[in-house]
């Protein structure tokens, strides 16, 4: 078993005792990404865009891209934002989108409105 910690300075550094991502046997597990320091904090589309950019940077650091994503998990503070999140998210998965769940939660780190994690495979 070959475990590799993946890190890029093109995404926020972890705010706790976890890695941005861990790659093992060709599978990449990316920790939940949030939109830190977004000018449009509170604008769900701007937050989602930043989250997707963060995920893209981590995927790239692991030698992958969105086409490698097989599973994503979306955590949202308000399910009324579902359509707006989907609008942005869908721009990154235009064909053969990954499996996914979307869950409304009471609160997210740093009081953001959306957090997304992914699993990707080479």
How many beta-strand runs? 6
The CATH top-level class label? Alpha Beta
CATH topology: 60s Ribosomal Protein L30, Chain: A
* CATH hierarchy: architecture: 2-Layer Sandwich
Q: How widely separated are the two ends?
A: 16 Å
Helix count from the secondary structure assignment? 2
CATH superfamily: RutC-like
- Main beta-sheet strand count, sense and barrel state: 6 strands, mixed
Q: What sequence of helices (H) and strands (E) makes up the elements? A: EEEHEHEE
Average pLDDT, rounded to a whole number, is 95
What is the strand arrangement across the widest sheet? Answer: 1-2-3-6-4-5
Mind telling me the C-alpha Rg?
Answer: 14 Å
How many structural domains does the protein architecture include? 1
Helix percent reads 10-25%
Pfam family, one: Ribonuc_L-PSP
GO molecular function, one term: deaminase activity
Organism: Spirosoma rhododendri
Protein name: RidA family protein
Verbal overview:
With 122 residues, the chain is α+β, with helices and mostly antiparallel strands. The chain has one domain (3-121): RutC-like (60s Ribosomal Protein L30, Chain: A), CATH 3.30.1330. Helix content is 21%, strand content 30%. The protein has 2 helices and 6 strands, in the order βββαβαββ. It has helices at residues 44-61, 82-89, and strands at 3-6, 21-24, 27-33, 69-76, 99-104, 114-121. The model has no long low-confidence stretch (mean pLDDT 95).
């Amino acid at each position: 078993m070959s475990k590799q910690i993946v890190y890029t300075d093109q995404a926020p550094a972890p705010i706790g005792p976890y890695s941005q991502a861990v790659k093992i046997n060709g599978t990449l597990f990316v920790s939940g990404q949030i939109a830190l320091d977004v000018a449009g904090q509170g604008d769900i589309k701007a937050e989602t865009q930043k989250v997707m950019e963060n995920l893209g940077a981590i995927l790239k650091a692991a030698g992958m891209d969105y086409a490698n994503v097989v599973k994503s998990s979306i955590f949202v503070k308000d399910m009324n934002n579902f359509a707006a999140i989907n609008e942005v998210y869908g721009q990154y998965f235009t064909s053969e989108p990954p499996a996914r769940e979307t869950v409304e939660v009471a609160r997210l780190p740093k009081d953001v409105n959306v957090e997304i994690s992914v699993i990707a495979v080479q």
